[in-house]
Amino acid sequence: DTLSSTTGENLESVDTLSSTTVDNLESVDTLSSTTVDNLEFVDTISSTTVDNLESVDTLSSLTLSSQDIQDDCVDTTSSDDGYISSGGIETEDSSSADCSEPYEIRSIPGKGKGMFATRKIFPGEIVLTEVPLIILADDIFIDPEKCERFLDKEVDKMPMHQRQRFLSLSDGRDPENPTYLGRFYTNDMDWDGDVCLCPTMARVNHACAPNADFITRQDKGEQRLVAISIIQPGDEITICYLPSADEGTDIRRVRQDYLLSLYGFRCTCKQCNLEGEDLEANEEVREKIKELQSVGLHKLQNKEIEQLFERCVVVTAKPTYLLQLIQALYNNNPNSQVDKYIQSIRGYVIAMTAYGEDSTQAQLWKERIEIDEFQALQMKI
Is pLDDT at 236 greater than 60 in this prediction? Predict the structure, then answer.
Protein backbone atom coordinates (compact mmCIF):
# COMPACT_ATOMS: atom_id res chain seq x y z
CA ASP A 1 0.00 0.00 0.00
CA THR A 2 2.64 2.48 1.04
CA LEU A 3 5.00 2.13 -1.94
CA SER A 4 2.22 2.12 -4.51
CA SER A 5 0.59 5.14 -2.90
CA THR A 6 3.73 7.15 -3.62
CA THR A 7 3.26 6.59 -7.32
CA GLY A 8 -0.42 7.44 -7.09
CA GLU A 9 -1.71 3.96 -7.93
CA ASN A 10 -3.92 3.87 -4.86
CA LEU A 11 -5.39 7.32 -5.28
CA GLU A 12 -8.39 6.20 -7.35
CA SER A 13 -10.62 6.77 -4.36
CA VAL A 14 -9.98 10.51 -4.14
CA ASP A 15 -11.96 12.64 -6.77
CA THR A 16 -11.42 16.42 -6.53
CA LEU A 17 -10.39 19.01 -4.07
CA SER A 18 -13.54 20.83 -5.02
CA SER A 19 -14.49 24.40 -4.36
CA THR A 20 -16.38 23.29 -1.27
CA THR A 21 -14.81 23.49 2.14
CA VAL A 22 -13.90 19.91 3.03
CA ASP A 23 -13.52 19.96 6.79
CA ASN A 24 -14.42 16.30 7.16
CA LEU A 25 -13.00 15.25 3.79
CA GLU A 26 -16.39 13.84 2.70
CA SER A 27 -16.17 15.70 -0.60
CA VAL A 28 -12.67 14.54 -1.49
CA ASP A 29 -12.94 11.84 -4.15
CA THR A 30 -9.74 12.02 -6.13
CA LEU A 31 -6.58 13.94 -5.84
CA SER A 32 -5.40 12.38 -9.08
CA SER A 33 -7.82 14.52 -11.09
CA THR A 34 -6.75 17.74 -9.35
CA THR A 35 -6.02 20.61 -11.72
CA VAL A 36 -4.59 24.09 -11.45
CA ASP A 37 -8.07 25.58 -11.98
CA ASN A 38 -9.96 23.73 -9.28
CA LEU A 39 -7.16 23.93 -6.70
CA GLU A 40 -7.38 27.71 -6.45
CA PHE A 41 -10.66 27.29 -4.60
CA VAL A 42 -9.39 24.93 -1.92
CA ASP A 43 -10.16 26.44 1.48
CA THR A 44 -9.64 23.86 4.17
CA ILE A 45 -8.71 20.27 4.72
CA SER A 46 -9.07 19.35 8.36
CA SER A 47 -6.26 17.28 9.82
CA THR A 48 -8.23 16.31 12.89
CA THR A 49 -11.65 15.40 11.48
CA VAL A 50 -10.91 12.38 9.37
CA ASP A 51 -13.72 9.99 10.25
CA ASN A 52 -14.70 9.68 6.59
CA LEU A 53 -11.20 8.95 5.36
CA GLU A 54 -11.59 5.17 5.48
CA SER A 55 -9.96 4.68 2.09
CA VAL A 56 -6.65 6.14 3.28
CA ASP A 57 -4.27 3.61 4.81
CA THR A 58 -1.25 5.77 5.59
CA LEU A 59 -0.17 9.38 5.69
CA SER A 60 1.78 8.70 2.51
CA SER A 61 -1.49 7.79 0.77
CA LEU A 62 -2.36 11.47 1.02
CA THR A 63 0.91 12.49 -0.62
CA LEU A 64 0.94 12.69 -4.39
CA SER A 65 4.03 11.95 -6.37
CA SER A 66 5.32 14.71 -8.64
CA GLN A 67 4.33 12.74 -11.71
CA ASP A 68 0.70 12.43 -10.57
CA ILE A 69 0.36 16.19 -10.24
CA GLN A 70 2.56 16.88 -13.27
CA ASP A 71 0.24 14.88 -15.54
CA ASP A 72 -2.74 16.97 -14.48
CA CYS A 73 -0.93 20.31 -14.36
CA VAL A 74 0.35 19.90 -17.90
CA ASP A 75 -3.13 19.17 -19.21
CA THR A 76 -4.70 22.06 -17.36
CA THR A 77 -2.12 24.74 -17.94
CA SER A 78 -2.24 24.01 -21.61
CA SER A 79 -6.00 24.69 -21.61
CA ASP A 80 -8.16 27.18 -19.92
CA ASP A 81 -2.73 19.82 34.81
CA GLY A 82 0.16 19.22 32.86
CA TYR A 83 -1.56 17.61 29.97
CA ILE A 84 -4.59 17.92 27.81
CA SER A 85 -5.88 14.60 26.60
CA SER A 86 -8.29 13.86 23.82
CA GLY A 87 -9.83 11.49 26.29
CA GLY A 88 -7.47 8.57 26.70
CA ILE A 89 -7.43 6.59 29.90
CA GLU A 90 -4.85 4.79 31.97
CA THR A 91 -6.61 1.54 32.76
CA GLU A 92 -4.60 0.77 35.88
CA ASP A 93 -4.72 4.29 37.28
CA SER A 94 -8.18 5.49 36.36
CA SER A 95 -11.54 4.29 37.59
CA SER A 96 -13.46 5.85 34.73
CA ALA A 97 -13.03 4.02 31.44
CA ASP A 98 -14.75 5.27 28.31
CA CYS A 99 -13.97 2.91 25.44
CA SER A 100 -15.10 5.49 22.88
CA GLU A 101 -11.89 7.40 23.52
CA PRO A 102 -8.93 6.91 21.17
CA TYR A 103 -6.41 5.27 23.49
CA GLU A 104 -5.74 3.56 26.78
CA ILE A 105 -2.50 2.85 28.60
CA ARG A 106 -2.00 -0.65 29.91
CA SER A 107 0.75 -2.98 31.04
CA ILE A 108 2.60 -5.21 28.59
CA PRO A 109 4.23 -8.35 30.06
CA GLY A 110 7.99 -7.91 30.01
CA LYS A 111 7.73 -4.49 28.37
CA GLY A 112 6.34 -2.12 30.97
CA LYS A 113 3.43 0.00 29.75
CA GLY A 114 2.20 0.93 26.32
CA MET A 115 -0.54 2.88 24.56
CA PHE A 116 -3.29 1.03 22.68
CA ALA A 117 -6.09 2.19 20.39
CA THR A 118 -9.62 1.81 21.75
CA ARG A 119 -11.18 2.54 18.36
CA LYS A 120 -10.17 2.91 14.74
CA ILE A 121 -7.86 5.90 14.26
CA PHE A 122 -7.19 7.47 10.86
CA PRO A 123 -4.08 9.15 9.41
CA GLY A 124 -3.85 12.77 10.50
CA GLU A 125 -6.06 12.25 13.54
CA ILE A 126 -4.77 13.69 16.80
CA VAL A 127 -4.57 10.89 19.36
CA LEU A 128 -3.33 13.03 22.23
CA THR A 129 -2.28 16.59 22.98
CA GLU A 130 -0.08 17.19 26.00
CA VAL A 131 1.46 20.24 27.63
CA PRO A 132 5.10 19.40 28.48
CA LEU A 133 5.84 18.85 32.14
CA ILE A 134 9.43 20.03 31.61
CA ILE A 135 10.99 22.12 28.82
CA LEU A 136 14.76 22.32 28.68
CA ALA A 137 17.08 24.36 26.45
CA ASP A 138 19.29 22.21 24.25
CA ASP A 139 22.54 23.74 25.53
CA ILE A 140 21.63 22.55 29.05
CA PHE A 141 20.38 19.18 27.82
CA ILE A 142 23.69 18.25 26.18
CA ASP A 143 25.60 18.94 29.41
CA PRO A 144 24.72 16.15 31.90
CA GLU A 145 25.90 18.11 34.94
CA LYS A 146 23.89 21.22 34.06
CA CYS A 147 20.92 19.05 33.13
CA GLU A 148 21.04 17.18 36.44
CA ARG A 149 21.16 20.42 38.45
CA PHE A 150 18.24 21.81 36.46
CA LEU A 151 16.15 18.67 36.99
CA ASP A 152 16.87 18.57 40.74
CA LYS A 153 15.43 22.08 41.11
CA GLU A 154 12.57 21.53 38.66
CA VAL A 155 11.33 18.25 40.15
CA ASP A 156 11.69 19.41 43.75
CA LYS A 157 9.36 22.37 43.16
CA MET A 158 6.70 20.29 41.36
CA PRO A 159 3.32 19.69 43.04
CA MET A 160 3.00 16.14 44.37
CA HIS A 161 0.82 14.83 41.52
CA GLN A 162 3.25 16.11 38.88
CA ARG A 163 6.23 14.67 40.74
CA GLN A 164 4.50 11.29 40.92
CA ARG A 165 3.95 11.35 37.16
CA PHE A 166 7.64 12.09 36.62
CA LEU A 167 8.80 9.42 39.07
CA SER A 168 6.56 6.81 37.44
CA LEU A 169 8.72 6.96 34.29
CA SER A 170 11.44 4.39 33.71
CA ASP A 171 15.19 4.90 33.49
CA GLY A 172 16.37 2.89 30.49
CA ARG A 173 20.03 3.29 31.39
CA ASP A 174 19.76 2.04 34.97
CA PRO A 175 16.33 0.46 35.63
CA GLU A 176 17.35 -0.81 39.07
CA ASN A 177 18.59 2.58 40.33
CA PRO A 178 16.61 5.20 38.41
CA THR A 179 17.66 8.85 38.63
CA TYR A 180 16.06 12.12 37.60
CA LEU A 181 18.59 12.44 34.79
CA GLY A 182 18.09 8.85 33.62
CA ARG A 183 14.32 9.23 33.57
CA PHE A 184 14.56 12.45 31.59
CA TYR A 185 17.09 11.17 29.04
CA THR A 186 15.01 8.01 28.52
CA ASN A 187 11.70 9.81 27.94
CA ASP A 188 12.52 13.25 26.49
CA MET A 189 11.31 14.51 23.11
CA ASP A 190 12.36 17.20 20.68
CA TRP A 191 10.69 20.58 21.20
CA ASP A 192 11.63 22.42 17.99
CA GLY A 193 15.33 22.33 18.76
CA ASP A 194 15.01 22.22 22.53
CA VAL A 195 13.86 19.27 24.65
CA CYS A 196 10.67 18.49 26.56
CA LEU A 197 9.13 15.77 28.71
CA CYS A 198 5.51 14.66 28.27
CA PRO A 199 4.82 11.84 30.75
CA THR A 200 1.69 10.48 29.07
CA MET A 201 3.19 10.54 25.57
CA ALA A 202 6.31 8.90 27.00
CA ARG A 203 4.20 5.75 27.42
CA VAL A 204 4.19 5.32 23.65
CA ASN A 205 6.69 2.60 22.74
CA HIS A 206 9.10 2.48 19.83
CA ALA A 207 8.70 0.75 16.46
CA CYS A 208 11.01 1.16 13.47
CA ALA A 209 7.93 1.46 11.23
CA PRO A 210 5.52 3.30 13.55
CA ASN A 211 1.86 4.17 13.10
CA ALA A 212 2.09 7.59 14.80
CA ASP A 213 4.48 10.46 15.39
CA PHE A 214 4.81 13.33 17.83
CA ILE A 215 4.41 16.82 16.42
CA THR A 216 5.50 19.98 18.22
CA ARG A 217 3.09 22.93 18.26
CA GLN A 218 5.00 25.55 20.20
CA ASP A 219 2.46 28.17 19.14
CA LYS A 220 -0.13 26.31 21.20
CA GLY A 221 2.30 25.22 23.91
CA GLU A 222 1.63 21.54 23.31
CA GLN A 223 3.01 18.33 21.91
CA ARG A 224 0.70 16.27 19.70
CA LEU A 225 0.57 12.57 18.99
CA VAL A 226 -0.72 12.20 15.42
CA ALA A 227 -1.60 8.99 13.57
CA ILE A 228 0.34 8.47 10.31
CA SER A 229 -1.42 5.25 9.28
CA ILE A 230 -4.71 3.52 10.08
CA ILE A 231 -4.61 2.13 13.62
CA GLN A 232 -7.11 -0.63 14.34
CA PRO A 233 -8.82 -1.06 17.73
CA GLY A 234 -6.50 -2.99 20.04
CA ASP A 235 -3.35 -2.13 18.06
CA GLU A 236 -0.45 -0.71 20.01
CA ILE A 237 0.23 2.93 19.11
CA THR A 238 3.93 3.41 18.37
CA ILE A 239 6.38 6.12 17.37
CA CYS A 240 9.97 5.94 16.14
CA TYR A 241 12.52 7.12 18.69
CA LEU A 242 15.15 7.56 15.98
CA PRO A 243 15.62 10.56 13.63
CA SER A 244 14.69 9.77 10.03
CA ALA A 245 17.68 11.73 8.73
CA ASP A 246 20.04 9.41 10.63
CA GLU A 247 19.55 6.08 12.42
CA GLY A 248 15.79 5.90 11.84
CA THR A 249 16.21 4.99 8.17
CA ASP A 250 19.34 2.86 8.64
CA ILE A 251 19.72 -0.93 8.51
CA ARG A 252 18.60 -3.20 11.37
CA ARG A 253 21.98 -3.59 13.09
CA VAL A 254 22.51 0.18 13.33
CA ARG A 255 18.99 0.79 14.64
CA GLN A 256 19.19 -1.94 17.26
CA ASP A 257 22.65 -0.91 18.47
CA TYR A 258 21.53 2.71 18.82
CA LEU A 259 18.39 1.82 20.76
CA LEU A 260 20.31 -0.54 23.04
CA SER A 261 22.96 2.08 23.86
CA LEU A 262 20.55 5.00 24.39
CA TYR A 263 17.38 3.37 25.68
CA GLY A 264 18.57 0.04 27.07
CA PHE A 265 16.48 -2.33 24.93
CA ARG A 266 16.92 -4.38 21.78
CA CYS A 267 14.10 -3.66 19.35
CA THR A 268 11.88 -6.60 18.38
CA CYS A 269 9.34 -4.72 16.24
CA LYS A 270 7.99 -6.13 12.97
CA GLN A 271 10.73 -4.46 10.92
CA CYS A 272 13.43 -5.88 13.16
CA ASN A 273 11.84 -9.35 13.02
CA LEU A 274 11.85 -9.56 9.22
CA GLU A 275 13.63 -12.61 7.83
CA GLY A 276 14.82 -14.01 4.51
CA GLU A 277 13.79 -12.16 1.36
CA ASP A 278 11.68 -9.64 3.27
CA LEU A 279 14.64 -8.61 5.41
CA GLU A 280 16.93 -8.48 2.38
CA ALA A 281 14.51 -6.23 0.49
CA ASN A 282 14.05 -3.92 3.48
CA GLU A 283 17.78 -3.64 4.10
CA GLU A 284 18.37 -2.88 0.41
CA VAL A 285 15.91 0.02 0.52
CA ARG A 286 17.56 1.39 3.65
CA GLU A 287 21.06 1.05 2.21
CA LYS A 288 19.98 3.10 -0.80
CA ILE A 289 18.51 5.72 1.55
CA LYS A 290 21.80 6.01 3.44
CA GLU A 291 23.71 6.22 0.16
CA LEU A 292 21.61 9.18 -0.96
CA GLN A 293 21.63 10.85 2.47
CA SER A 294 25.41 10.60 2.68
CA VAL A 295 25.77 12.83 -0.38
CA GLY A 296 23.92 15.66 1.36
CA LEU A 297 20.41 16.83 0.54
CA HIS A 298 21.64 20.11 -0.97
CA LYS A 299 23.84 18.23 -3.44
CA LEU A 300 21.19 15.83 -4.74
CA GLN A 301 19.44 16.31 -8.05
CA ASN A 302 15.63 16.36 -8.06
CA LYS A 303 15.43 12.85 -9.47
CA GLU A 304 17.59 11.60 -6.60
CA ILE A 305 15.51 13.45 -4.00
CA GLU A 306 12.38 11.85 -5.47
CA GLN A 307 14.05 8.43 -5.14
CA LEU A 308 14.95 9.25 -1.53
CA PHE A 309 11.39 10.38 -0.84
CA GLU A 310 9.86 7.20 -2.24
CA ARG A 311 12.19 4.95 -0.26
CA CYS A 312 11.58 6.94 2.93
CA VAL A 313 7.85 6.40 2.49
CA VAL A 314 8.48 2.64 2.19
CA VAL A 315 10.28 2.55 5.57
CA THR A 316 7.74 4.90 7.22
CA ALA A 317 9.97 7.92 7.75
CA LYS A 318 8.64 10.74 9.91
CA PRO A 319 6.32 13.24 8.14
CA THR A 320 8.56 16.06 9.34
CA TYR A 321 11.45 14.54 7.38
CA LEU A 322 9.28 13.97 4.30
CA LEU A 323 8.43 17.67 4.47
CA GLN A 324 12.15 18.52 4.45
CA LEU A 325 12.52 16.52 1.23
CA ILE A 326 9.61 18.36 -0.38
CA GLN A 327 11.19 21.66 0.70
CA ALA A 328 14.42 20.61 -1.02
CA LEU A 329 12.50 19.81 -4.22
CA TYR A 330 10.76 23.17 -4.00
CA ASN A 331 14.07 25.01 -3.57
CA ASN A 332 15.58 23.16 -6.53
CA ASN A 333 12.98 24.60 -8.93
CA PRO A 334 13.63 28.36 -8.81
CA ASN A 335 12.81 28.89 -12.48
CA SER A 336 9.96 26.43 -12.97
CA GLN A 337 6.68 27.74 -11.60
CA VAL A 338 4.78 24.58 -12.54
CA ASP A 339 7.29 22.39 -10.67
CA LYS A 340 7.20 24.70 -7.65
CA TYR A 341 3.40 24.56 -7.74
CA ILE A 342 3.55 20.76 -7.73
CA GLN A 343 5.79 20.71 -4.65
CA SER A 344 3.57 23.28 -2.94
CA ILE A 345 0.60 20.93 -3.23
CA ARG A 346 2.59 17.99 -1.86
CA GLY A 347 4.02 20.10 0.97
CA TYR A 348 0.58 21.41 1.92
CA VAL A 349 -0.94 17.92 2.13
CA ILE A 350 1.84 16.65 4.41
CA ALA A 351 1.96 19.79 6.59
CA MET A 352 -1.81 19.98 6.95
CA THR A 353 -2.09 16.31 7.87
CA ALA A 354 0.81 16.26 10.33
CA TYR A 355 0.75 19.74 11.88
CA GLY A 356 -2.88 20.73 11.34
CA GLU A 357 -4.61 23.14 9.02
CA ASP A 358 -4.13 26.07 11.39
CA SER A 359 -0.35 25.53 11.67
CA THR A 360 2.20 27.97 10.30
CA GLN A 361 3.66 25.09 8.24
CA ALA A 362 0.35 24.37 6.48
CA GLN A 363 -0.39 28.05 5.94
CA LEU A 364 3.06 28.59 4.39
CA TRP A 365 2.50 25.84 1.84
CA LYS A 366 -1.05 27.02 1.14
CA GLU A 367 0.23 30.52 0.40
CA ARG A 368 2.85 29.03 -1.91
CA ILE A 369 0.13 27.17 -3.82
CA GLU A 370 -1.70 30.42 -4.46
CA ILE A 371 1.46 32.37 -5.43
CA ASP A 372 2.93 29.64 -7.62
CA GLU A 373 -0.41 28.99 -9.34
CA PHE A 374 -0.79 32.68 -10.15
CA GLN A 375 2.76 32.95 -11.48
CA ALA A 376 2.39 29.77 -13.53
CA LEU A 377 -0.80 31.11 -15.12
CA GLN A 378 0.84 34.51 -15.76
CA MET A 379 3.69 32.79 -17.58
CA LYS A 380 1.18 30.83 -19.62
CA ILE A 381 -0.63 34.03 -20.61
Answer: yes
Q: At 65, is the pLDDT very low, low, confident or very high (cuts 50, 70, 90)?
A: low
0.85 exceeded by the pTM? no
Kindly report the three-state secondary structure assignment for every residue of the chain: CHHHHHCCCCHHHCCCCCCCCECCCCCCCCCCCCCHHHHCCCCCECCCCCCCCCCCCEHHHHCCCHHHHHHHHHHHHCCCCCCCCCCCEECCCCCCCCCCCCEEEEEECCCEEEEEECCCECCCCEEEEECCCEEECHHHHCCHHHHHHHHHHHHHCCCHHHHHHHHCCCCCCCCCCCCHHHHHHHHEEEECCEEEECCCHHHCEECCCCCEEEEEEHHHCEEEEEECECECCCCEEEECCCCCCCHHHCCHHHHHHHHHHHHCCCCCCCCCCCCHHHHHHHHHHHHHHHHHHHHCHHHCCHHHHHHHHHHHHHCCCCHHHHHHHHHHHHHCCCCCHHHHHHHHHHHHHHHHHHHCCCCHHHHHHHHHHHHHHHHHHHHHC
| pLDDT band for position 377 (cuts 50, 70, 90) | low
